[in-house]
Amino acid sequence: xxxxxxxxxxxxxxxxxxxxxxxxxxxxxxxxxxxxxxxxxxxxxxxxxxxxxxxxxxxxxxxxxxxxxxxxxxxxxxxxxxxxxxxxxxxxxxxxxxxxxxxxxxxxxxxxxxxxxxxxxxxxxxxxxxxxxxxxxxxxxxxxxxxxxxxxxxxxxxxxxxxxxxxxxxxxxxxxxxxxxxxxxxxxxxxxxxxxxxxxxxxxxxxxxxxxxxxxxxxxxxxxxxxxxxxxxxxxxxxxxxxxxxxxxxxxxxxxxxxxxxxxxxxxxxxxxxxxxxxxxxxxxxxxxxxxxxxxxxxxxxxx
Length: 304
Ligand code: SF4
Ligand code: SF4
Hints:
The protein is an alpha/beta fold. The chain is built from 11 helices and 12 strands. Strands 7-1-2-8-9-10-11-12 form an 8-stranded mixed β-sheet.
């Protein structure tokens, strides 16, 4: 197989993004993630499979999807109009999506080749050139579709397009070694530094993540830390102190640090792909909380 024919599962491609690295960027969201963060704001990116996405607010209970599906996935209660979905029987064929007049159904995830992804990426080259932007691979977790990610990065490099890779850091170390030369900037997530709470919040401990961060920096990789802060989950003074310690340990090598205040939008999206609402019970971060976090970290010497 030619490298450019390699395919991967893509959730979405956003052009003209301003928040995923420097300048104006095209962000490619790959589907599938080895973590299961309690606060995930993109729950439709967690599964490595294509999946049915149902927006109940749009459903008019017309019944077209019931008739279209050969697998008996959709059920409408004749009395209440309540719409139940038997996801275990769904093959994500898309037949019901095409018949829904209310645009209440979508299939999340599309198998795309490197060439197909690069087509929209290359269209915005003039914006990248003017703004210092480029392409960002995000997710899900791009390192979990490693061969595809490596080919995308190589294609961007061949076309002299700046590359960012947003990663949770939880992947075999050799994979980071292999792409170090074709990543201009890692946007490296730090979701907390208490190993036990990190495991409770994300499903994995911090060991591999922190050793990969250390390894990338020692090998000359360019890294900006990205720290999601979730009220009551990872924003205590002790959590902030540990973050500041981490930043100071690598301050000479790091290229900045950002905080990413929690927003509760993920809960509704999780239900749309049939994921149970996470038992997070956190509110969207308030302005007061953001101000406290920023002031605390700045006081401790972090450039947030
Ligand atoms: S995607 Fe296909 S299998 Fe799944 S509910 Fe729709 S028609 Fe049925
Ligand atoms: S086709 Fe669309 S609007 Fe009609 S019942 Fe199915 S999901 Fe609802």
